[in-house]
Amino acid sequence: MVTLEREDISTPSLAGIYDVPEAARYLRATFHAEELYPVSSRKLIGWIRRGLASPELCEIPGRELLIEFEDLVSMRVIAALRSAGVGWAEIRATDQWLRDQTGCARPFATEALWTGQGQIFVEWTAKLISGGRNGQMAFDLLREYLIPVHGLKFDAASQVAVSWEALRGVVLEPDIQFGAPCVKGTRIPTRTIVGMVEAGDSPHWVAQAYGISPEEVQAALDWESRLRPD
User: Fold this and answer.
1) How far apart are CA 56 and CA 84, in angstroms?
2) 189 and 181 in contact (C-beta within 8 Å)?
3) Cβ of 200: how many Cβ atoms within 10 Å?
4) What span, in angstroms and rounded, lies between the C-alpha atoms of 194 and 189?
5) What is the pTM of this model?
6) CA of 136: how far to CAs of 143, 160, 219, in Å?
7) Which of 1, 11, 71, 218 would disulfide-bridge 53, Cβ 3.0–4.6 Å?
8) What's the pLDDT tens digit per position in 74-105?
């Protein structure tokens, strides 16, 4: 039997780009998604129309919309805020304030927010709390679900998210496999794993073929099962 190495999947690397239904599925499948605001394609399009992603996307028809990795991470923060009852006026005002403070077009995807370190986070949460009960609820929820960082890694220079472990053992990185979910530490897309198992290969055989552990195969299967509608 020929063993497939971790790097044998050789799809060219491009920055992570996602259509809206795909992004919504990933957000519904990730850590703590059950407790956060339910995300649908329609809701994501509405958030984009409100200018909470790249501004140039606001007028693009829904079926043609594509978002980048930083937008995907940002939408997770917005889901947390909406779950806590924070209104759109406050979210948009906070987004603009953070853009001014950080100089980043997508401040919800920056390390300053997700790690809870630095004055920016302190001022941001204080701003939410000052808005009343919803602000306090938002702070509590953010502290529980965003801090410590749940599977995010940041670029040392820009402090912008560059890797997201959306579920244990499954990672999205914008420069690997077009940003598709992969088995952690490899270039093996989770959809490849599930495709082989559905075609009749045993998880044990797949693990041997790719030189990964049975636990890594199971992580890929778990992730893909969460992407499917109930």
Assistant:
1) 28
2) yes
3) 7
4) 9
5) 0.83
6) 11, 26, 35
7) 71
8) 998 888 778 777 788 878 887 887 888 778 88
